[in-house]
Design brief:
Blueprint lengths: L7 E5 L3 H12 L4 E5 L2 H10 L4 E5 L7 H9 L7 E5 L4 H9 L4 E4 L7 H70 L3 H25 L7 E2 H15 L8 E5 L3 E2 L1 H21 L8 E8 L2 E8 L15 H13 L2 E4 L6 E8 L3 H14 L1
Parallel strand pairs: 1-2, 1-3, 3-4, 4-5, 7-9
Antiparallel strand pairs: 6-8, 9-10, 10-12, 11-12
Helix pairs in contact: 1-5, 2-3, 5-6, 6-7, 6-8, 7-8, 8-9
């Protein structure tokens, strides 16, 4: 035996003389042997624990071997059973194996079967240990999976709560900026506060999308832009954004890049509102579409275009913000020279370099 502690075999047989032969033979092989002379006593002993393998006779007074085997199989964590009988009837062997016996052998009254019992018991104990190790490993895998699922669910709840609180805080800041802008009598201050409010609102909308979504890893960009433009319409004075439209294909993007896109849209729309239509409101179109592996975003107006002189009060902050966000997106920003008004087109990859690398990693590992 490989184990340092001896394995214990329970021999259930009403033949006391044969039981002594089994005990002497198996003790020499390192087994501890116990004996019960009937099925009821054997089942009771197994329930107490500490039995590694059972040798079970078929013909006994009271419960026979098959009835006893059925009771043993019903015990949780029952040891393996080697079915032992003097009968040459193969049907008994088949029935015993189907009922859960680990092995089957024919005994004789002289004890010549004891070496075979030793081999069968060794094999049954080893197989039982392998099964237990496999079951323990599977149980640990299931437990680890359950722990991971619980942690993931807890993390999702925490992230949702964080996004909810951040979104609320940003919305409060945007509202305060809006109130301050409305109460200011200085046009320059009013414009600066309104611009700041739009930038804050663009970020707040991302967090609002995250905590109301089932997916915390991505944002539906079309829905996000629709909500963002609605915020801009509500915050605008008079009807200056009444003709602000959105045409967007459904697509998902990570939250960080959604923030950058929202800020760019906010800046370019506000720029069109301020400079495209000096005499009043006009159409402003935001278009989001997929172009192969790229995403195209355009903000278009039909206003005065390049013919207008820049407002001397302009600080160029909006253009610097657009350039900074475009760098974050690794996007190209171009003005369409063929458009009579102003049309700004951004093009960037639908997936980041890290996402592309992660997608290729399994393929590299497989090859």
């Amino acid at each position: 035996m490989n184990s340092t502690a001896p394995s214990t075999l329970l021999y259930i047989d009403d033949d006391a003389a044969l039981a002594r032969l089994v005990e002497r033979g198996l003790k020499r092989q390192g087994y501890a042997v116990e004996h019960c002379d009937n099925g009821e006593a054997g089942v009771a002993r197994i329930r107490q624990g500490g039995i590694d393998v059972v040798a079970l006779d078929q013909y006994m007074p009271g419960l026979d071997g098959l009835e006893t085997l059925e009771l043993i199989q019903a015990i949780p964590g029952a040891p393996p059973v080697v079915f032992v009988t003097a009968s040459q009837d193969s049907k008994i062997a088949v029935t015993a194996l189907k009922a859960g016996a680990a092995d089957y052998l024919v005994k004789d009254t002289q004890g010549d079967f004891v070496p075979l019992l030793h081999v069968a018991a060794d094999g049954a104990v080893k197989q039982a240990r392998i099964r237990k190790a496999r079951d323990d490993a599977e149980a640990e895998v299931h437990a680890s999976r359950d722990r991971y699922a619980a942690l993931a669910a807890e993390r999702e709840v925490l992230l949702r709560e964080v996004n909810h609180r951040v979104g609320n805080s940003l919305q409060i800041i945007a509202s305060l900026l809006h109130l301050q802008a409305n109460s200011s009598s200085d046009d320059d201050v009013k414009v600066a506060l309104t611009n700041a409010m739009g930038r804050v609102a663009a970020v707040a909308q991302v967090h609002r999308r995250l905590y109301t979504s089932h997916d915390l890893k991505s944002v539906l960009l079309n829905q996000y832009l629709e909500a963002l433009l609605e915020d801009l319409r509500r915050s605008a004075e008079g009807n200056r954004m009444s003709r602000l439209t959105l045409k967007a294909e459904q697509m998902e993007i990570d939250p960080d890049r959604a923030v950058a896109i929202g800020i760019i849209v906010n800046e370019l729309v506000m720029n069109a509102v301020k400079y495209a239509y000096p005499d009043g409101a006009g159409p402003i179109h935001v278009v989001l579409s997929a172009d192969g592996d790229d995403i195209m975003l355009s903000i278009t107006d039909d206003g005065v275009g390049l013919n207008v002189k820049l407002d001397p009060r302009s600080t160029g902050m909006g253009q610097r913000i657009v350039n900074a966000m475009a760098n974050k997106l690794e996007a190209t920003v171009e003005r369409d020279p063929t458009h009579s008004g102003t049309r700004i087109v951004l093009r960037f990859h639908a997936r980041t370099a890290a996402e592309v690398a992660a997608a290729k990693a399994p393929l590299s590992a497989a090859s």
